[in-house]
Amino acid sequence: MGETITFWVLAVVSVGAALGMVFNRKAVYSALMLGTVMLCLAVLYAVQEAPFLAAVQIIVYTGAVMMLFLFVLMLVGVDSSDSLVETLRGQRFWAVIAGIGFASLIVLAVGNATFGSQAGLAAATAQGGGYVRSIALLLFTKYVFAFEVTSALLITAALAAMVLAHRERVAKKATQKDLSRARFLSDRPTPLPGPGTYARGNAVDMPALLPDGSVSEESVNPYIARYDVEQDRLPSDPKFAEAIRARAEEESE
Amino acid sequence: MTTQYLILSGLLFAIGAVGVLIRRNAIVVFMCVELMLNACNLAFVTFARQVGNLEGQIIAFFVMVVAAAEVVVGLAIIVTIFRTRRSASVDDANLLKY
Amino acid sequence: MDPVEIIQHTAGGVIGMSWLMIAFPLLGATILLVFNRYTNRWGHLLGVAMSLASFVVAVLAFVQLLGLPEAQRRQAVHLWEFIPGMVDMGLLVDPLSIAFALLITGVGSLIHIYSIGYMAHDPDRRRFFAYLNLFVAAMLLLVLADNYLALFIGWEGVGLASYLLIGFWQFKPSAAVAAKKAFVVNRVGDFGLLVGMFLIWTTFGTLAFAELKPITSENPTTLAIGLLLLLGACGKSAQLPLQSWLLDAMEGPTPVSALIHAATMVTAGVYLVVRSGAFFFPEGSGAALAVAIVGAATLLAGAIIGCAKDDIKKGLAGSTMSQIGYMMLGAGLGPVGYAFAIGHLITHGFFKADMFLGAGSVMHAMNDEVNMRKYGGLRKYMPITFATFFIGYLAIIGFPLLSGYFTKDGIIESAIHAEPVLGWLAVLGAGLTGFYMSRMVFMTFFGEKRWDKEAHPHESPAVMTVPLIVLSIGSIFLGGYLVLSNTLLLWLAPAVGRPAELPGFHPFSVPGLSTLALVAVGAAFAWFKYGRAEVPAVQPRGSFLTTFARRDLYGDALNESLIMRPGQWLTRLAVYFDNRGIDGVVNGLAAGIGGSSGRLRRLQTGFARTYALSILFGAAILTGALLLVGNI
Asked: For this UniProt entry, which segments traverse the membrane (chain B) (predicted)?
């Protein structure tokens, strides 16, 4: 009875989280949803007499793999959410058809099959002298070769990750002198004007006024400008609003 | 209970597959692949209990190891591609065609 | 009487070394061709030396053969196992082959010497001598071989040498075309010879002369073999219907015309018939009759062609055809004819080579002009050439007591005795010979000068005139020596058999006198038309018959319309069928596959997600299939 309740609760949660992962625009949310599914599965493993796997699931998946996902997401850009427009014609429709078809075939197959009563792992565990001992016995006797090969696989993967992520410096590193020369050769040797200061709002997203009284677009950080436009937090003064909007557009190009 | 577990496994697998097909962000696609692997693991564990044999759990363990290695390399590739193309969309890498 | 048995040569001496005859010129050709321009300075001397060495060996072998009793005069020299269990390579030294070897090496050496002078200014003189040596080697292999296969190798070798020498000045398109034509027409004859050899092998299981048995009566197989061999002989000897190449072959240098296309190679057909005579052309058989008919037809055709040619070399070529026709006629008459045919062959080798070289000497003096209408009155300017040419002329028309008189008269007498119709045709041919040869002599050496302005005729150097003198001496005496008291007939008897009764020499018989009369009429007619009267510098239109003769009896036109045009149509049909039919199917298939592939490849969009979708569909279909059949 306890297992049934656990199963149904976790089944609903995990399917919901899985759907949420697939249909959420923001990658970070998807990652969190995936973490949820994995935790649910860890519990289900524990329920199904696999405590070792439950622990490994939490340590490896929720701990290591999910962290890696989040880390890369941060590296690549958190705010890069997918657009909702599908570019491949018919892809979404046919994907859903295929998915539903596949799922219903599996359900049909499993539903048609008749299973005997569960054998349970008690006998197998008792034979090895305890659950952990039994797992260890299998891993280090029958599957010892595969086990050792996985170590080679992991080392290779670690090396591969280092090689792939390593960036070769093709040009000499720019010195202070180089940077200074480049700055004076550019159109603007001076720093950008700082943002203006107003008591009414956040000082950072307010454009500065130049000595002649005109508004300086360049004084606003373009990301902040875009954020302001998206969140509709433009200042009421049309001069400033116009400058921020122009800056935001500039950025999106 | 076996039937229910297996159906849950199949559903999660199908959801993952649909995710692979409709998402364009390479990282999310990767997550969906992980979901499919996890769904398989659930089936392995369920069958292990059904037939009373620990080997299903061992296989699930190996799947996890391989998945971990795969994630490491895959993410490294994504990072490299992103670095050169400033994009993580799987549709942008479409030059290998007719 | 049949020919005597061929015995295996065991004793030492020159006969055992007779392979040297072939080896010397072959070595010369090899050296000249391999070390090509390094031998430019002395190459011609090497060529002459090799030819002379070969001649010396031939003379020594001849002397040794003379010393043997008649029953041992056919000596086979085994060289090596050629095709194991099938054919052994060996040489047959017997009266027939040694007569040929003497002619080839003797006349060949004289022509080699003459060529030193004739080709003195040609930058490729060394190559010319290499080919000449190659020809001598191949021709000697042809006549010395003791089996048909080795004979065939020599046969093809002389064909090759002939091709190379006709096309020696290959920068002239006409020479290149003539060489090709000679090669192609010869292939037709070779085809006949080859099939004949196949038939001999399947019928008798051997190709060696020593193992074939003389036959007395003919059966269909031997008739077929005989006709096929005759086809081969026709190709090589320019007999009807394969005569067309010989006239064009005159594009080659004149010594080549003298050596290959007058004295030796073109007589290979006669050799083949005589050598095979006992096996496939027994006296009075159908095959022998075919040989005689071909000979008679060709002797008339050649004579008619010779009457109309203004080109001195082509006139001589027509005459060669005609004279070989006489030889074939003789060869078709059995052992009686063989002796006269071979005799005429030898004397013809001398007087025709003499006249060809004389013509070469004239051309040499006249800036390579060959048109006789631009000669005239040359006898005062080139006395030696004129004298030797005139002797050759007298010999060929059968002037009493010169070489040609004896041998040709012998053929005519034997022919009238055996085949009266063919014999009288030969008499008519003799009359024509009298006309066209006289015409040639009168146009060239008598009458008014009709030279071009640049011509400065002069006598040729000694290296050219000495061979002419030697050849003309042969033209005077050889015939009488060979025919009177049947010297040649008795000499050849061990090789070709002896007739039941020896022919006598009847100078005052009806055929002999009528021949002389016709020759005199022909010569007189030529004198009135070309000696006394003025020769027009431009060819007159002439009657239908003249045009007929000028066009080589429409031989080329006949070949063209009967063989070339249908061949071209067949080729066009095949090309059309190939283009439209076979290529259409192939191209259509390729275009179909290409087109459908062009459309199918659009499936390769480059989007990984599209591929993944198809994979998922595949997985779903597989699952469904498993559900249906496996009942999982």
From this structure: 6-22, 27-47, 59-82
